[in-house]
Write a structure and sequence with these properties.
By secondary structure, the first copy, chain A, is an alpha/beta fold. Chain A has helices spanning 9-12, 14-19, 24-36, 56-60, 78-89, 104-110, 205-218, and strands spanning 2-5, 43-46, 64-68, 93-97, 117-129, 143-153, 163-170, 175-184, 187-192, 232-233. A 9-stranded mixed beta sheet of chain A has the order 2-1-3-4-9-8-7-5-6.
Chain lengths: 243, 243, 243, 243
């Protein structure tokens, strides 16, 4: 799998660098390694690498891509965003974190504005499990706190999630659908809102566990053979040999 | 409401003109007038009008837009497609018919390829109700036949519908999710697959009834005041006066 | 439509009677009359009437039933609960309010424990719209406050709602899926959690509006003709005449 | 995991015994062993054993239960059905096969009639994947045929599945939602309609693969710690230590 990160604010803002000295991507990668260990091979990619570190060969061999971006969504090339969208439809998993809700790949896959309300303050976020049968909540307590945390509030303009896993509340009274699953084509998408560059959210034990669970859930280890590459003209009985 | 149509094949193909002498849009408009009568005001718009007949003033005053297009999706301007997408997110209803599954507005709103299998042959389509509690099935029998009909078959690469209303089978054995509801932003979308320019599908009593029901269902008569125009910075207590 | 109420605590507890002098059912009925006016005919029924006021003739002529009960769920006869369940499956709407989550009809229709967390304290509930395209939010602001209010918190053990309309937060930090739609058979169910006998919740303008919207949404004005009365043996071609 | 079977018709009907000499349960168990091998320990239980082979100790140590029953649903004791329902809500997986749609545990969990249309004839069933991102379709072709097969047709009176995986068509033109996922409480339920005692359906390679995939999907290997045992009174701050 591949952990993607803008990796700019870490280099320009000492406050962020103090929390994520090797970049947010390395902290996220360490969470996945911590929980999934030998089950997965983790590499990283960042905005300022050629092709943002996501050329065709990388995408083709990525089962699950995690995405963290914030201020530089526009710097992601349209063709790379389109290639990611296509790879998800072809069976890659995508775990979109925090401000990635406005990233080009996510916007293309959702078809909505993905806007929300926000506040940088000293809120405490409480993350509540509302789907205890779901694979993403494995080992997660009924509620956990992240403090301090940026507020993300409703209305969050995404399609109704195929599965809603977490709902968060904030000190200010807002609520947010903070853990959302979307199935698109042959691929799976998980959006998880916690995470802010100025707070050590990706060092939080439960956040790390959820991300690892999400990676495991999003991994389609053998993509379906259904053909979605084009509209296939299909003469009567086309499937007789296969079926 | 506004009935949109490419309105080209009717002018070039005598076979189509014989079935839809005034254009497919007029036949669809007549179905809506037949069932909804005084409850709605129906106008039409077509591809070769300026701005495709869908300038800002028209869209702004359209509660529900129906869409029929087939061979000339690419001739729809990107900015018109974007404006339609935005109007849906702001509360307009959209009823997408048949080959409109590959239209630009629908593709943008779905985020998937919207590809499917197809066959122009002599199949009989059977349309089965699988959601009898839904408003779109009002007055519709448990199953109705359309014959002859073009085949549209799975896998249909759309997001899981928020509500699945009809499933069709074909003589050749294929199945298709032929009546699908999608909620996006403040708007409602209904996709209904029956309809082919070479067959009198839009003269079919049940097809006409479903389209009218769908228009009624898709009509959000008072859009929600939630603000989705941007990510709104929201200081603590921002809602106190409103709430 | 019929408004059902236990109507016991109003007669024994002066505090409740002060808020709901004619019983909670009359206050709810007045909300529906206020918003729907001539469009609907409202009658009431209570636990201590014969057959709880819900004999076959009443149920048969009820399009939508609202339900408020709290301490005496067990006093509802099993056969009445079963008859209500059957009427919903046959196309009646059901609006279940507050502590009705543990009522026999709701439990039978959900198939889960319907348990939740609760606290009688001085919380403020904030009700957030998370589905602005839904008919139930018509005219409802993005957020509204109910204070003071009993807390109902997650995990709420119901099936995933077919449509989630509202999420609430409480001063204590809990969240709750407070407005939930369920389609069952040919009928529609709306659960709305606000409401407590010791607080004037059913006098709250937005609560009254939501209840009226929900009644309108839940009303299936012409039940589908699909046959769900039994497993129907269906010889090949059974539908030819109908289709 | 535990494979449950009525195991009566195999003993009384030589035709069935010829196809399933050791009982349908042994054939189903062999499918699971074939695909999951060492990953799972399979035992069987049948109607005529004490407590139907499903006493508390068995249920408590069962991660996934598969269910096949047809003519003797009424012979299952109510308290056993209730115990199964409770175990699912507490995190057990349940895979309900074919005529198990009318079994007591399934009816209790669904809350609907679960009725459908049916025909014992010489239909060919075609099973189509409509959710290629789902774990249950791993290794399954886009369509596969089962012939001959009993027809199960819509309308199938179940709640809208949380995830719809397969839709079937039949020679007679009917359609059926043949692979349906339901999340209930902390547990997962998969209904899979193929399977008839007079046909060798459970020897079919793809049917066997789907059942094994479904067992794997339904297995919640560590139930969520959310408390659904009762309505929990929760004083303000109850979660502070945990969160």
């Amino acid at each position: 799998m591949t952990v993607w990160n803008e990796n700019r604010v870490e280099r320009t803002d000492p406050g962020v660098r103090a929390i994520y000295p090797a970049g947010i991507h390395e902290t996220i990668a360490s969470a996945i390694r911590e929980h999934l260990g030998e089950r997965t091979e983790v590499r990283t990619a960042t905005l300022d690498e050629p092709v943002h570190g996501l050329d065709g060969a990388v995408l083709e061999t990525t089962d699950v891509l995690t995405w963290w971006g914030h201020l530089f969504h526009d710097n992601v090339a349209d063709d790379v965003a389109a290639a990611i969208q296509q790879r998800v439809l072809d069976g890659m998993g995508l775990v979109v974190l925090h401000s990635g809700h406005l990233s080009k790949p996510f916007l293309r896959l959702m078809g909505t504005s993905c806007n929300l309300r926000w506040r940088e303050a000293d809120d405490r976020e409480l993350v509540w499990t509302v789907n205890p049968a779901h694979a993403v909540v494995r080992g997660v307590p009924p509620v956990f706190a992240i403090e301090p945390q940026e507020m993300y509030g409703e209305f969050f303009d995404v399609p109704t999630p195929d599965e809603l896993v977490f709902i968060s509340s904030y000190t200010g009274g807002e609520v947010f659908r903070s853990g959302c699953c979307f199935l698109r084509g042959k691929g799976r998408i998980f959006f998880f809102s916690p995470g802010h560059e100025h707070y050590p959210v990706y060092h939080h034990a439960q956040v790390r566990r959820v991300i690892a669970n999400a990676v495991l859930w999003a991994c389609v280890d053998q993509a379906s053979p259904v053909d979605t590459s084009t509209c296939v003209e299909s003469p009567k009985g086309w499937f007789e040999e296969q079926a």
